[in-house]
Amino acid sequence: MRRSISFFTAAAAGDLLKRVGIFDVYRSSNGVVEVQANDKTKLNLMDQEYYFALINIFHEINEDPSSRVAILTSKEGHAFTGGTNLKVLAGETAKKEENPSPYPAMRLQKQHTVIRRFQDCISSIARCRVPVLAAVDRYCIGGGTSVLTACDVRYSTENTIFSVKEAAVGLAADVGVVQRLPQIVGQGRARELLFTARNFSAKDAKAYGLLEDVYSDYPIMLKEVRQVAEQIAANSPLAVQGGKMLMNWGLEDKVQRSLEYTAAWNAFNIPCDDIPEAKDAFLEKRPPHFKNRVLSASSSVPLPPDFDVQ
């Protein structure tokens, strides 16, 4: 028989443990932690504040011996996340450093370090010793799919829209979805979603294996996910957390090696004009005009003397 969820009734009434960035954090007496994204726009866009709040929260959950299971969701009426804040990203890409290093290698290393920090923020979910359940509503776009795939178990409402959106904004997805999505939905489907950047429904996401269950609305979904969390919390923490560690053993080391290569790749590709172009096209309601491409990524054929990048 499932336990009661009286803590969450109290939490909904306003018994807030703390607020970190845009996230409200609740905790039950039996070690269930609920993390709700809750910003004033209701889109919960991903910017530096979002990422750093996420890693701080999951570091604390990981270090607290009383933690048994976590739920990552959004406040009712809010999107799980509308993805990367494109205006912020385009501004960061376009702006000039006040005191730039005169050494190109050091500038690239700095960009590499920044990307690795953002990657670690998402990976903090996968590395957290307790299971993390995702409860998704409305939108899970772009970087949101990296957050989603770092979670252990995933649920959503029927009206949720998903998209691996990075290719549409001139960015190679670099914070985890490229590494984790194929493990969940398979190589072919992951590549199709990555290359097309198309929207797909909760029904599709469940058919692909990305979601465990889909519910008619947010209250029903959250009630069910909280009951799952209660069931997990009732089990042996050593067995549950050990099970997560063992499942991760053959996966996360490979993920981290790939993320390192991804950070190196994007360190010299992000400072291009595709991201500002995507932002401008969106604001001007026109198709973007992307001009950059990959040059001889793996070719062993020598380049001709008159090779030109144009």
Automatic annotation (TrEMBL):
Pathway membership, UniProt: Lipid metabolism; fatty acid beta-oxidation
SUPFAM superfamilies reported for this sequence: ClpP/crotonase
InterPro entries, A to Z: ClpP/crotonase-like_dom_sf, Ech1-like, Enoyl-CoA_hydra/iso, Enoyl-CoA_hydra_C
Protein name stated in the entry: Enoyl-CoA hydratase/isomerase, putative
Keywords: Fatty acid metabolism, Isomerase, Lipid metabolism
Key word Nucleus present: no
Superkingdom of this protein's organism: Eukaryota
Molecular-function annotations in GO: delta(3,5)-delta(2,4)-dienoyl-CoA isomerase activity
Organism: Angomonas deanei
Pfam families listed in its UniProt record: ECH_1
Protein family: Belongs to the enoyl-CoA hydratase/isomerase family.
Entry keyword Metal-binding: no
Record-level GO BP terms: fatty acid beta-oxidation
